[in-house]
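Hi P.,

Sorry for the delay on this. The queue was packed all week, but I finally got your sequence through. Input first:
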Amino acid sequence: MASHALTKEENAEFLSFWAALFFVYGVMGGIQTESTRASSVVAVRDLSDTKRHPRLMAAGLMSGGVGALVIAVISPALATFSLFQHPHIIAVGLILTAILYSGHSALAGILQGSSHWSTYGRFLILDGMLRLACISAAAAWSLGLLGLEVACFCALGAWLLMLAFSRIARQSLQIRADVPLRKLLSQIFHAVVSSISSAALVVAFPLLLKLTTPASVFEQSAPLLLAISMTRAPIMVPLQAFQGVAITHVVKAGSEGWRALHRPILLLLVAGALGAVLAFVFGPSLMLLFGAEYGVSGLTLALLTLASLVMALLTLTGTAALSTGHHRAFSSGWATATAVAVAVLLLPLSVEVRCILSLTVGPAVGILVHLLALRRRPTSTVDGRVA
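Then the structure:
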């Protein structure tokens, strides 16, 4: 939609803004993963002392407040490095995003962990429809780059609408954690560190590319950035929706641990390989639907699809590490993946080669870190206590 409403140069900036916005979403997503794990444990155990533990929503909002403070401190960099045409408006929007989306993440995590899947599904639909309606209106009314950027903030109120109209959503506010506040905040911290790294690779990658690429080259990179998004979405979007199910499944699997994910991993490998073939054959023609200037080769699209497969495997191994109580390894794997990916972007290679290698090698190293941790005894199972 943005590719038709904006010029090629404006669309490159919009994709950078979109990356920044969903980077914040991704960071706050750490609250969702830990809320899912904690509420899953509470749901399958008879814990008699949870009244001494904090409510998950309160802990989530506390974490969001810290995130908003961090964004406020670093927001002057948006103007210093000329990342956006309207840096002050974007900064305020991102600060509000950190606060409001932390509530969104906590609610989503609790609904998943408590197995309220129908309510969670309605929540996702409401969020997506609200965002689509606002962006469509901004594009239809030709509000330009800033109008589209402001419209993207509209979906932040979706969780408040859920609380207003859903009894189950309101009841979820009472769900408490399975551990004391200090332990919970520590585990949220590890989840957020992982989410920062995940968001850097999954949604904020255009920003990393912009910071490591000459401006004249980056301005022409909209086709490649769009190709990365298009090859990633068919794999990562369903997987991210499945992540809560995976956490709950591993927690309930008890001593079986992460081996409960062997079948999803196999299905993912098959789907990724098939997707790469389809991207090679049909991808170039589909890219031209965005305009004649959005041509990308079939080989590039196939390799980007395989890179997305590696990213998806990293997501699943990370989910397994979190679900079995290996919070430190969970964050270390993602942080290592990001560090390696950024290092690859600094190599003196073409922009396409750097992107493909960065999105493949970095996640592969992160997977290795997770697998080394998963060889150890699980510290969180349904028939044991959380370490």
